[in-house]
Write a structure and sequence with these properties.
By secondary structure, the chain is mainly beta. Helices cover 9% and strands 49% of the residues. It binds flavin mononucleotide.
Length: 147
């Protein structure tokens, strides 16, 4: 799978008590245009996994090429992922990170079993795009587009 290049996202949501949660993910795709649907895949052993069972919303943040540290942070268990950098709450209550290339705010439409992951389908309720230099993940390393 490492030989398939992808972008990098941070998927944000909230836990049962309203605390912000999130994880780095590259299992993301545009599923349908009408209705507008996206698909993510969340590891059942992730600490934030329970959020996707109780929350009804998530946001997919598309990371820019300068956000490798953000990617590493959201892929690290047991730390305060939201301390020390800029973000805001979106319309669906999940975090939108400053400096991202774009984001899609979703409500959870369906969940399907996917082995040790759960496939979560989100209906897009709001979206935005701005920058133009993506962070890329390929062969287990962070990469950038050639100039
Ligand atoms: C580039 C990259 C892509 C990842 N993609 C996914 C993914 O699509 N789904 C997933 O569940 N975990 C993925 N992970 C792993 C999670 O980010 C990591 O295990 C995270 O700590 C899980 O959240 P937790 O801290 O709440 O347990 C990815 C990690 C990296 C570095």
């Amino acid at each position: 799978m490492g030989h398939f290049p992808t972008g990098v996202t941070v998927i944000t949501t909230r836990d049962r008590d309203g605390n912000h949660a999130g994880l780095t993910a590259n299992a993301f795709l545009s599923l349908s245009l009408n209705p507008p649907l996206v698909l993510i895949s969340v590891d059942k052993s992730a600490q934030c996994y329970a959020c996707f069972e109780c929350a009804n919303a998530f946001t997919v943040n598309f990371l820019s090429e300068g956000q490798e540290e953000i990617s590493r942070r959201f892929a690290t268990k047991g730390i305060d992922k939201f301390a020390g950098f800029a973000w805001r709450e979106g319309n669906n209550g999940a975090a939108i990170l400053d400096g991202v290339l774009g984001y899609v705010e979703c409500r959870i439409a369906q969940c399907y079993d996917g082995g040790d992951h759960t496939i979560v389908v989100g209906e897009i309720i709001n979206a935005s795009a701005s920058g133009d230099r993506p962070l890329i993940f390929f062969k287990g390393k962070y990469q950038r587009l050639a100039e």
